Amino acid sequence: MQDLEILKLMENSKSLALNFPFCTIEPSVGVMTLADEVEWNHSASRDRWLRPARNIVSVSCYLLKLHIKLKMRSMRAYGDEFVVVSVGEQPEVDLTEITINCPDKVGLGCDIARIVFEFGVSITRGDLVTDGRWCFVALWVIPRKSMLPMRWTLMKQRLEEACPSNLPSLLPLPSPPVSLSQRILLLQVSSIDRTGLLNDVSQKLWELEFTIHKVKVSTTPEEKSINFFFISDSRNKLPWRKRGDEVVQQVKELLGTNCSCCDIQQASQELRGLEILPPPAWLTMDLVYDEPPTFEKRRSDSIGIQNVSSATIEVKDDTINSPLHTLLQVTCKRRKGLLYDTLRCVKDLKLQVAHMRIASLEDGNSEISVFFLDCKGRKVTDQASKDNILYSVREAVENPLRIKIITRGVDTELFVSTPIENCGRGRPRVVYDVTLALKLLDVGIFQADIGRHEVDNHKWEVYRFLLSDREDFNLTCTKNRNLIIERVQDMLLG
Fold it and tell me: Which residues form the ACT domain (predicted)?
């Protein structure tokens, strides 16, 4: 039997990508059901396909040839682009298919999940397979209800930028790299204060493809809001002046005559605000380590749903599907950022992903399966390592962020704390989602600040909002405080 005939059998049988042994990290063993209902077992160490003992047939086939031919077939099937976004006829109802075919890199799955999360779309199902050199990703997504416009072209561009470019014949030439320290700009906006001002400016900056790293907001007794945004251009372009002028013009048009000052300049080294600092006096341990209840339990308490259990997470061996890998399986309530939180933890633990799958279950849960090896390419066998992975993933999935309201004297402050990735990135969309939730509740922000601090050897990004009280919405009322926490939580986690 020739190798192309084997390829044809595999394609006709619609075998799962997980069962293709050349789509996992070598050395590899796989079992698949072909069109003629024959099981073929391949041992990478022998470079040949073997039929079970009941009817042994030796097949000469080289893994590399099969891998290249399958890869090139997929490239022809999806076109010459390495990122393809096929938008449904009715994007709000029909699923949009995102396919990525590119060289692999450490943490690629996390980077992709982060971008999809940032654009506010929900992943209904998806697959990621890699042999350690080349990666193929397929995701089926649908936009969530949001006030932000869905920008598929921009999402495609961001996904392309996340893909490695070590094959110039297939990938477009990247823009010249610019260090983040050179790209931090300081935008100063002064305007008459109003509810939703911070959210409106945040939305405009996102539409202009700028990332907010730090915010400082204060309100004067004359009800004038002074805002400082430390931002970077996601287009990664220099010189920055032309893009800076574009930001100033757009923000002025947004605020109209209420805007008294809008200026942008390159932030000085001491003002860039990206350093990890010791915790200040107001950052107490209970803000991040007060045994926060699971997301599912908080959700059930807030909206009255009963019998909602916490996430089911297992780290185990799966000798049937992939005997050479360890399986991480996560099952919990479907929510925003679930795949990102899972793969962020996997990336920070330096685990090598061979295959990942996410699926939506009928009971409203999502199930994520990750086949992985340790950082040295070995199967995880000792129980201590498995327990450490289990603890870390459980913390990332069940407690992706902390939300608290604290009253100190006459001040009522809202705190949102999120973990920082090992690479230094914070959680996306936090400023926009929190300020949108407060805007919809008609709750004003008197002061706001974002700081990066290390607490108990863990790095946190802490968002601090001093809320404005009003006569018909007393912030000392337990009911109103719980309502704020519920709305902010639903906006962040959905």
Answer: 186-269
How high is the pLDDT of residue 239? 73
Cα–Cα distance between 239 and 63 in angstroms, integer? 47
Tokens describing residue 240: 């920055």
Sketch the domain layout of the chain as residue ranges: 3-75, 81-162, 183-288+401-493, 295-331+348-398
CATH of domain 81-162: 3.30.70.260
Tokens of 470: 């009003």
Name the amino acid, one letter, at 450.
I
Domains 81-162 and 183-288+401-493 share a fold: yes
> Sorting pLDDT into bands at 50, 70 and 90, what band is 485?
very high
State the burial class of residue 313 (Cβ atoms within 10 Å of its Cβ: 0-12, 13-18, 19+).
buried
Architecture of domain 183-288+401-493: 2-Layer Sandwich (3.30)
Question: Do residues 223 and 204 lie in contact, with contact meaning Cβ atoms separated by under 8 Å?
Answer: no
- Residue type for position 433: D
Phi, psi at 339, each rounded to 5°: -65, -40
Q: Which residue has the tokens 């086949």?
A: 371
What is the rounded average pLDDT for all residues in the chain?
A: 76
CB 180 within 8 A of CB 237: no
What pLDDT, in 10s, does the model give residues 73-107?
444 444 456 899 988 887 777 889 999 998 888 88
Burial of 3 (0-12, 13-18, 19+ CB in 10 A): middle
Model confidence pTM above 0.70? yes
CA distance 437 to 283: 23
Give helix 338-348 / helix 108-118 axis angle, nearest 10°: 150
378 CB-near residues (< 8 Å, 6+ apart): none
Helix axes of 3-13 and 63-78: crossing angle, nearest 10 degrees: 50
Determine contact, residues 344/421, Cβ cutoff 8 Å. yes
- pLDDT over 60 (residue 339): yes
Between CA 465 and CA 448 the distance in angstroms is 4
Q: In Å, how far are 26, 288, 389, 441 from 394, measured between CA atoms?
A: 28, 16, 8, 32
What amino acid is encoded at 380 in this protein?
V
Are 465 and 197 in contact, with CB atoms under 8 Å apart? no
Alpha helices in 267-319 (DSSP H): 286-289, 295-303
Contact in structure between 398 and 446 (CB atoms under 8 Å): no
308: amino acid identity, one letter:
V
Helix, strand, coil content of the chain in percent (nearest 5): 35, 30, 35
How many Cα atoms sit within 13 Å of 99 on the Cβ side?
15
